[in-house]
């Protein structure tokens, strides 16, 4: 596979199976069916992170066990090709997590998981053998830093539990395993820096490689409205120095990744201009949560962008509803999405194809998480 291709979201749109659907999408976005679902099985979380971007959505219940299994069947009927089990809360905290992964795997629906890693041992078989990728949000390289930024409700650190789970998964996995590191800081009321996890980047990268991860990713943090958080100059300097220290760790089998948003954050950018007035990507994927179904993860919890309630409606009913049609017509990325969106380049490519036609050959299928 071409280096980095699996990390390019817009590149995935060039796959044969996806290109077949793009023609339908560009002809009439309102009739396109979802290709990818991000699903929050539950809002329950067993950590107490002070800076959680989903803090206002946590511990407010989850899907009933029978309903969540019904939804899995609805996804298949709708032609969904990939599902990301995420949160919200911790997806593995839902008692039917394993059932969901089993069902999707049996029906050739690709599964990705984003988790805090504390419950890996509970679902080792599913994670190792039935998921295309598992990304663990660790955000630390030592027990001390994990306790500072990712404490359990009792204040203790579960770093050892997470790392040992990743180590075992690293030995058994058939898909990709990633170690995610979000740059975080704490300041006092006067804005004076109290603590930052940035000093752990090098330590975390070494741990990631040692336990068998396929990649280590350093990302900027975002506020609850999804805007980039600008770190203090001293923190940015630490990040830059730590990234230099780990460059030598990269090999053909272990990647050091930093999205373009990390550079944007270090440069002080907070907003992203969108030169288009519709979101074609929102016609290909959606986010399903216990509090509702929303046009995209960036608007999770935004009632103005809620398109339905999957506790009461099937996904098919929601997708064909007047409510979704109304929200999609109202959604204007140039106005409503001034934050940095990771699918911005995908929208630019789709708009280019809409205006000029698709004048390039497709590539073989390799990853349906568009």
Automatic annotation (TrEMBL):
Its cofactor is [4Fe-4S] cluster. Residues 28-252 form the Radical SAM core domain. Coiled coil: none annotated. Pfam families: Radical_SAM, SPASM. Keywords: Iron, Iron-sulfur, Metal-binding, S-adenosyl-L-methionine. InterPro entries: 4Fe4S-binding_SPASM_dom, Aldolase_TIM, Radical_SAM_PqqE_MftC-like, rSAM, rSAM_sf. The keyword Acetylation does not apply. PANTHER family: PQQA PEPTIDE CYCLASE (PTHR11228:SF7), RADICAL SAM DOMAIN PROTEIN (PTHR11228). This is Radical SAM protein.
